[in-house]
Task: structure prediction
Amino acid sequence: MRGLVAQEILLVIGALKLPVERDLATLHRQEHFRGVEFNLDLREKIGQLGFIAALSGFRAIVADALFIQAYSAWENTEWGRMLLLFRQVTTLQPRVLLFWDTAAWHMAWNASVAAMNDRSQPRLTLRVKAQREYFALGKDFLERGIKNNPDRPELYEALARLYKEKYNDHERASEYYAKAAALPEAAVFDRRFSAYELSYCEGREREAYERLRMLYDEGPRQRLPNLIKRLKFLEDKLGIPQEQRIPVKEAKSVK
Amino acid sequence: MAFIYFIGHLEATAREYWLQAHSSGLLARVFLAVVALLFPDLQAFNLVDDIVAGTAISVAVFAETALLGVFYTVIYTLLAAFVFYGKEL
Result:
């Protein structure tokens, strides 16, 4: 009898607590908590045991264990398994930048090189195709990482590096360095790197020159060898009048 | 006890499905409603995974979570006392 009464009380109190719980859940989402939705898609990705562990509040530990497994997969050059594991890890911990960055690095730098050097594939076209697929996987990790962490500059920097080193796309690299530079915790070099990358873009030399010159005019801390070198190159290319150029002494010191 | 722990972590999912009126059957909806109403939302206290990832807790989140914790503790303790009062243990 008492049990029944207690259940009825619980139902009434349950109706009262619902709006509070919903408000709190909304607040959590606004502040980037509860980034992981526990649904069938996640269940399929991480397996039954992992799902139960993640449900019971051990999401970080499961993600760490999978990350270690991914490292072992790397040692054995099991690229497909690594990809699967990194997808699980990043699904479980979407706010940990290290996981996105490492996943992208393994795909775009390590797996892509392995694909290009794959001796079991004699056709160069297919090796290049596989390499590009790994570049795309690395890019995808970084783009999804940015979507989950739009307020952190590190992944923008990593994507800029990928565009620069793997796609040779200086324009996009400059764009992502600029996006990183616009964030509050950006590294001091982001603004400079964005201008460097722009200086390699055909047709945007004037803009690059103005940005580099602005950095140069900020003072000696920005007058680094690479900046002076790129500035000098653009001065020559754009035919900047002698009186407007940076002092020759500084230009010589970096040659 | 362990089941309540797991159900508590699933309560938020059950509540969302129930309140969002997904096209599920009557039986499923009643089941989800019972889970959402009877069990506490333990996922609300599971903030450690995000904290280790560098997410800061605001005062509002901390206060509301702590209040909910106190509310659960008081209600479930009182109900347990009510049910077990006078029983030979």
In short: Residues 96-170 of chain A form one domain.
